[in-house]
Amino acid sequence: MKKLRRFNPFRFNRSLKLIFQIFVLILILSLFTFVKFHYSESRAVKAATSQPIGEAAVAAAAVAATGNPQNAKKNPEVVLVQPINDSILYLINKKKLNVKIQNEQQFPNFIQHRLVILIQIHNRASYLNQLIQSLKKVKGIDETLVIFSHDFYSDELNTLVESVDFCPVLQLFYPHSIQLNPNRFPGQDPNDCPRDISKENAKQAGCLNADNPDAYGHYRQAEFTQVKHHWLWKLSYVFDKLEYTKKAADLAVLLLEEDYYLAPDALHMLKLMRQQKSSLCPQCSIVSVGSYETSDYATRSSVVSTNNWISDKHNMGMSIDREAWSQLKACAETFCKFDDYNWDWSLQFSGMTCWKAPIQVLYARTSRVFHIGQCGIHHKGTCDPSKIVEDVNKRLAGAKFFPSEISLESVGQIKIMPRPNGGWSDPRDHKLCMSFIQ
């Protein structure tokens, strides 16, 4: 009969000691991995915030345009100029720079209202801050999806947008920005022709676009062409690609820019005008709560007018619906090939030469949208919008906001065939512009 082995306490203690040593080793390795990962992340953050052009911007565009970082390369709209760093992608996802609604749970009924505010942003944070502050005071903003469309990635801008807690918010990133393509089209390729070189000298130099100067003999400048591209891309994305809006037949989009400022009843007035458009101006394709006219806010806050849409009179605070968007798409070739880097002059030209009838607008005589921009693409220098905002608020001090009814005062028939401003003769710009519609 086999003897039972006697219990050896010494051997049992050795086993416990070995288990403890293995546990300590695993703990040390886990701690080392944790520290290494977060050190890499902090370096990624530093790289992203210290460089205006780099992986962070590429990743932002890729994620925003696809909604899925893993499928970014499959999306033809995304321009990848360098490999995406995994740490940067982690950072971007952590900041939720993708196609998801911010504050969606707090404001679940926004999708029922079919009105979207679409804001085009470049890099002027001080102006954007003023716009956000004015939006916060607008009645009905909590029922309205506000989309911020960027063509420049910066932590300062993203922090501002992420601070918005009074309405549902979505961020988009224009994937063909100069920031993502600093040394190639649609940025400024080193082999592009200088703006003021003559066509003869351009051909001798062999620069890329030598055969395509504009109507005034100048060659394209990327910083000017980007605005028109971005304008059309964001509309196409919201009307035809964005999951939340692409199937909304009655969708209306209010177009704003980063250097605008809104009156408290801007949405109230817009909804009132859109509700009565069928009786006041059924042929109007555009409804605008912005105006450059100077009117008495105490006595004329309910007055509206109609006219043919003129770019430098009616381009501020305009809204378009799906019917107008369909007309714009049908005339995209005219819009995209008109030799003018301004989207509004291009829209006016296409409206007068291609649309079924010249574009007409129903607009408020007392503006609910104000342009506070001093600096921008044409003007450089110190930008402090606070003084202009102060002047706007003084102007609105005695206003009678929130009219219960609106009255049509006059009907105009101004017809001005826009003269092209140039800057848009390169076939590459035409092709890129058209690609947003196809």
What brief labels describe this structure?
438 residues; alpha/beta; 40% helix; two-stranded antiparallel ribbon
Strand fraction: 5-15%
Provide the residue-averaged pLDDT.
83
Largest beta-sheet details: 9 strands, mixed
Strand order of the largest sheet: 3-2-1-4-8-6-9-7-11
How far apart are the first and last residues' alpha carbons, in Å?
89 Å
Q: Spell out the helices and strands N to C.
A: HHHEHEHEHHEEHEEHEHHHEEHEH
The helix count comes to 14
How many strand elements?
A: 11
Report helical residue fraction: 25-40%
Q: What general outline do the C-alpha atoms trace? A: globular
Verbal overview:
This protein is α/β, with parallel strands linked by helices and 438 residues long. The protein has 14 helices and eleven strands. The strands form two sheets. A nine-stranded mixed sheet has the order 3-2-1-4-8-6-9-7-11, sandwiched between helices. Strands 5-10 form a two-stranded antiparallel ribbon. Helix 1 packs across helix 3 and helix 4 packs parallel to helix 5. The protein is globular, with a radius of gyration of 27 Å. The chain starts with 8 loop residues before the first helix and ends with a helix. About 14% of the residues have low confidence.
Give the SSE layout.
Elements: H1 9-50, H2 55-66, H3 86-94, E1 115-121, H4 125-136, E2 145-150, H5 155-162, E3 169-173, H6 199-205, H7 222-241, E4 252-257, E5 260-262, H8 266-280, E6 286-288, E7 303-308, H9 311-314, E8 318-321, H10 322-330, H11 332-337, H12 343-353, E9 360-364, E10 369-371, H13 386-395, E11 407-411, H14 427-435
Parallel strand pairs: 1-2, 1-4, 2-3, 6-9, 7-11
Antiparallel strand pairs: 4-8, 5-10, 6-8, 7-9
